[in-house]
Design goal:
It is built from seven helices and six strands, in the order αββαααααββββα. With 186 residues, it is of the alpha+beta class. A hairpin with a 2-residue loop joins strand 3 and strand 4.
Amino acid sequence: MAEDNIKKQKRAIIIIIGILIVVILIVAFIILLFKQNNTISSNNGEAIIVTNDIEESNNQEDLEDLYNMSEQERITYYCAEFFKLVDRKNYDKAYEILYSEYKENYFPTQTSFSEYIEEYFPDDFSLNYTNFERLGDIYVLWVDVKDTLNGSSGHNFSMNVVIQENDFNDYVLSFSRNSAVDSEEE
């Protein structure tokens, strides 16, 4: 009989521990969802942006990472960030990074920039940095753009990317626009 009471007590303790674990998991899941969700829907269905400290801390972490990078690492990081925007079809943000005179000469509108990218860049591409030079306050990267879906039969080309860094994570960029056009015409 004493053994039955001990077994019942053990079973009750196991059930309580199990319930506590489930409750903790549910609370953790709710907190995770809350942190990932940057918007809250209002009564009329419009999305209201909720400012949070997570985005600001990520920007601060990015700056700290940039401070610790070498000059070449920082400039290739900027180049990669620009082409990530292009790859994700976030053309408005990519367009904002372009050097103003370059935009005036080659892409007077964001639409002209978007159309150029859609026409001459592969749908999925990778970058290979082949050379890096500093010329005064600008940096020049030699970049191979590789079509990752179609390999050597795809639209692959080389281009120069020119970056002017104003401050950490504050830069403008231009690239040899005709490289993609010329290689497609060959």
